[in-house]
Every structure is written in structure tokens, then in C-alpha cells.
Amino acid sequence: MIGNISSGFETLRKLGGAVLLSAGLVGLASPGLAQTYPARNITFVVGYAAGGTGDVIARLVAQKLSESLGKSVVVENRAGASGGIAASGVARAEPDGHTILVGQSAEIAINPHLLKGLNYNPDKDLMPISLGAVVPLGLVVPGKTPYSTLAELVAGAKSSQKGLSYATAGAGTPSHFAGELLKLKTQSNLTHVPYKGAGPALNDILGGHVDMYFSGLPAAMPNVRSGNMKLLAVSSEKRSASAPDVPTVAEAINAPGFDITLWIGFFAPRGTPNEIVTRLNEEINKILVQPDIKERLLSEGADVTPMSVEQFSIFVKTESEKYAQVAKQTGLKAE
């Protein structure tokens, strides 16, 4: 059974006081380095095509971080290998805080348990900086589809000889887990169609080339509001505040325990000075709680929970352990 990735938030919050004190002491060790950083422009690397949830959050934070640090923060999309191309590239970058991975669940917590021959190790090659957001996945279908509920969609998949297709942001991503879990729970005929990120997948939903997609809500909601897509259900344990009338998958198909969400976080190459990591953590956390940013993310269904470096490190470790168990239980393998 897939656990709720937000279940550990209370524990992490309770750790907050001691952890933040520790982070502050680390920052005091060499104040000069943090004060002279950055020396040049910073690059945020996103492992998926433009238009996905991670890309949306990266660009929101990049704009604000440019203002606070006084240097440009450029977002670069390096799609492929379920975020692995971007992750391996950042892992080999100079550890000076000027190349940052805007990582997601797949390349950090899932790939190591599904893909053989990875040329990076998230635990050894990357340093957690800060959690950006946690978002439910929304099951979206083309606006002109005949299905208006998840029950109708499942019935259509079962009645069609060829079944239905479901898009994902790549093999082994949370959208892949969600699609396979839906297939298992409903015993439906669903065919996986992987893309290099949410943007291309959403484009093919809009074009009617694929039947459905578990998308991060921030990336999908504009098209849902415009009527170009229908939102049939959300993948989280609880309903989303941004779409309170939309049922959870667990509700819609009577599948207790159906709870998969997507998270986005910031990572530096291993060896980056702790002073710089702490500075970035503090600056990003300040941005996330700014009223305009927080309101934007919350309105799109994202859960904003700023964490210290140590808290986020614990979160990442817990997520990796969870997906290792899920992969073993489901037998899911990347294609």
C-alpha cells in the first residue's frame, strides 16, 4: 500500500527548532563564503520538458531568487530518462552552488529502485537543499471525451477491446505508479504511453491523442478551468483544496490506500559548501511563504511546507525507502 507522503510532516515540524538551530550554527562557520555567493548567474536544471509542475515551480522561485540574490537565475530543461539526464548532469557539475537541480520524486526517490545502470546516485552525488512543494496528481482527460466520472472511464476501458491509453511524464514517475495502481485496482485494460515530461503529455491530452493522464495539479488546472480538460479525480488521500468538489481516486473506485503525490525539491552537487546550501535553503523558504507565491501554489493544489536542510534530508530518505517498498510490492519496472 502506498503511504501518504505528507504523513511525516508533523514529525518533521517537531524537529524544526533543534534542526533550524543546527542549520544556523553551520551557517555561522564561514559567513564570508555565504555573503560573497553567488559569484555569477545560477542555473536551475529541470529534468522534464517545459510546462510541467516542476517547471512551473522552478520558474516561480527563480524569478524571486534572482531578486533576492542579485544575480540571474536561469531555468534549463534537460528532459529524458525520467529526470535522470538532468540529475546526472547536476551531480557532475562544479559543487559551488551555481548549478541546482529542481528534482522530483522520480529521479530522486524512484529511479534508483527501478532503473539499472544509473550513472548517478542521489544519496551520494546530490545534497538536499529545500522542499519546494508537494502536489496531488489529477486524473485529467480531453475536454471532449464522453467520460465525466472515473467510474465511466473505467467502464469504457473495460468495454473497449483495445482498452484505453494513459500518458505519463516518463517510466517510473509518480504518474506511472498511479496509472499502474489504477489498472491493478480496477482490473482495467490500460496501456502505458510514456513522455519526456508533463508538458508533452498534457499537449497530447489536449489533442486527444491519449485518453488520460495523472498530472500534477499546478500544470493541469489552467486547462481544466478553461474547459479544455476534465478533472475526474485526484490521487491523494484527501481532496484538494483547489478542487474540493473533485473526488479522490480512493473515493471514486472504492480503493482505500490509493494515495500517490508528486513532490519537487532543490538539490546541489555533493561537495557544495554547507554555508551555500544553508543560504539557498533560507532564501528559497522565504520565497515559498511570500503571500503571492504561496497563494499561487495553494490555489493550484500544491502543499507548501518549508523545511530546513536536515528536515528535507529526512523527508527524501523516507520517500526513497517508501518507493523501494512500493516497487517491490507491485513488481513495477521501468520500460
TrEMBL record:
<dbReference type="InterPro" id="IPR005064">
    <property type="entry name" value="BUG"/>
</dbReference>
<dbReference type="InterPro" id="IPR042100">
    <property type="entry name" value="Bug_dom1"/>
</dbReference>
<protein>
    <recommendedName>
        <fullName>LacI family transcriptional regulator</fullName>
    </recommendedName>
</protein>
<dbReference type="Pfam" id="PF03401">
    <property type="entry name" value="TctC"/>
</dbReference>
<comment type="similarity">
    <text>Belongs to the UPF0065 (bug) family.</text>
</comment>
